[in-house]
Write a structure and sequence with these properties.
Number of domains: 2
Number of helices: 8
Distance between the termini: 63 Å
Strand content: 15-25%
CATH superfamily of the largest domain: SPOUT methyltransferase, trefoil knot domain
Strand order of the largest sheet: 2-1-6-5-7
């Protein structure tokens, strides 16, 4: 697949494009990723790409001409143009899978106080990575590029995706490595047993437990299997017993005086 990022700061992507999974995908020829400098398209004699907003207000607004001329230079009939904007649809793992099927993504990064509103008419979709404010769309475009690229077949093994957080609607189960005992903290015995079915059930149960504790909203509309319902009931019983035990045996904190 091909991903083209339109930005005022292409230098921000130098490290991003030459490390880790992104580098691997590019070297394998599985993903073509490029950052295009919007400023190179300005017709302003002072090389400006922004102007003060009509009606007054704080900050500067990116102008139509350089942004849209830059877009026109790379857009093809198969391109899907995504505008990085706080007004956009929330980016999710499901959205990443949907975008991975596209032949060519163009990610348009705003800066300053944002875009001239007319630029929105040239985008196919607006995307937001969260309810907070960033200086520009560059970091958002990196998040989307990373999430989408790692889903391209061949970049990482398909098995690596299966149990990851959000792939099956649950958070991923806790994982452990050597040593078995670290400062008195033990790896659960079932993981050392070699019994694959017991390990599978343990991981599913702990995935349900973690999701219940941290992101219960993910469970609200889930279509549970019979096995999941049974394990979730066990989790709730265990957590209630643990909470009751803590009430009966409150932790004694050291006197610091």
């Amino acid at each position: 697949m091909r991903i083209t990022i339109l930005t005022l700061f292409p230098e921000m992507f130098e490290g991003f494009l030459t490390t880790s999974i992104i580098k691997k995908a590019r070297l394998k020829g599985l993903a073509e990723i490029e950052a295009i400098d919007i400023r190179a398209f300005t017709e302003d004699k002072h090389n400006r790409v922004d102007e003060y907003p009509f009606g007054g207000g704080q900050g500067m607004i990116m102008k139509c001409q350089p942004v849209l001329d830059c877009l026109k230079s790379v857009r093809t009939p198969s391109s899907k143009v995504l505008l990085m904007a706080p007004t956009g649809q929330q980016f999710t793992q499901a959205k990443a899978r949907e975008l991975q099927k596209q032949e060519h993504l163009i990610l348009l990064c705003g800066h300053y106080e944002g875009f001239d509103a007319r630029i929105r008419e040239y985008a196919d979709e607006e995307i937001s990575i969260g309810d907070y404010v960033l200086t520009g769309g560059e970091l958002a475009s990196m998040v989307i590029t990373d999430a989408v690229t790692r889903l391209v077949p061949g970049v990482i093994t398909e098995e690596s995706h299966l149990d990851e957080s959000f792939e099956n609607g649950l958070l991923e189960y806790p994982q452990y490595t050597r040593p078995v005992d670290y400062d008195g903290h033990q790896v659960p015995e079932v993981l050392l047993s070699g019994h694959h079915e017991n390990i599978r059930k343990f991981r599913l149960k702990e995935s349900l437990r973690l999701t219940l504790q941290v992101r219960p909203d993910l469970l609200q509309h889930r279509a549970f299997t019979k096995e999941e319902m049974k394990l979730l009931d066990e989790v709730r019983e265990e957590e209630e017993a643990k909470a009751l035990n803590q009430l009966e045996s409150p932790e004694i904190k050291p006197d610091l005086e």
